Amino acid sequence: MKTTDIVQKTDKELVNVLAEQQAKLAELRVDYRVKQVSNIKELAAVRKTVARIKTIMRERAITADEAGEKETK
Question: What CA–CA distance (Å, rounded) separates 46 from 21?
């Protein structure tokens, strides 16, 4: 999943996609350990997608916190 696709999603959608990707990552890790993975690069791609989603969510949280601080001042 590309970063542009992730940025366009709402916070609720990001939570759902994150859960799906983490489940997929767990499944791929198990398959890798029992040598059933046909494409090892998929494991890295899913891991990077999870990192991208978490980064976007964190950026949004920081932006929201900063906006909240400016309003209270």
Answer: 7
